[in-house]
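Box S1 | Example of a co-folding query
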Amino acid sequence: MIERLVRDGTVVARSDGTVHSVFPVAVGAAEGEALRAWVLREGATQTIEIGLGYGISALFVCDGLLANGNPAARHVVVDPYQETRFAGCGLQVLAEARLTGVVEYYAEASQVQLPRFVSEGRRFDLAFIDGNHRFDGVFLDLVYLGRLVRTGGIVFVDDYQLPAVARATSFFLTNLGWTIEEVSAPDDFHQWVVLRTAEIPDTRPFDYYVDF
Ligand SMILES: C[S@@+](CC[C@H](N)C(=O)[O-])C[C@H]1O[C@@H](n2cnc3c(N)ncnc32)[C@H](O)[C@@H]1O
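Box S1 (continued) | Returned holo structure for S-adenosylmethionine
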């Protein structure tokens, strides 16, 4: 499935017959492989993705989860525009790859859905962010994923070439003790950064602030 999509670069939506060019909206093969490698390296069983789009990144994450071999593995995907802008193509691709039993889909903006997961006590090993892309959207995703991803877990962020994404990320490095595990080569469309959340609890005094 991954090979076919990367080769053809198009999906025909079963919902309305529209033809969609998958790239450069979706992550490319190099980023997908980096994502899968982190799922494997971390031995992840519970993963979450903000922004399903055409489902390419989700296919790579699920490929890693299946290779890790835990039958209880789940990949949670959050995207409010899947049925409209994407005509259901991401979910269609996942169904064709027979991943419906692994994927849990929420048709909601991440800024609304992530706080719900926090109150439900959900926990994840690894998160992938490729959703709203504006500073405030990414910042909120990072705040909530900081609570949802396990201590010392992985947050893989796409579009690090965008100043808003880089600036939002910077706060967590300068103020919260997160660290950078990997930065990909500069790229006009898809540079990624891999963050590790803090290994120790947040004990900042109330007036702690480092400019970022
Ligand atoms: C660049 S696409 C993701 C592509 C995907 N990674 C792939 O490989 O196919 C960005 C996605 O983020 C979604 N999105 C935009 N705002 C969002 C939000 N507030 N919460 C969750 N998803 C959002 C869009 O609907 C779109 O599907």
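Strands lie at 10-12, 19-21, 46-50, 74-78, 103-106, 124-129, 149-158, 179-183, 192-196. The mean pLDDT is 97.
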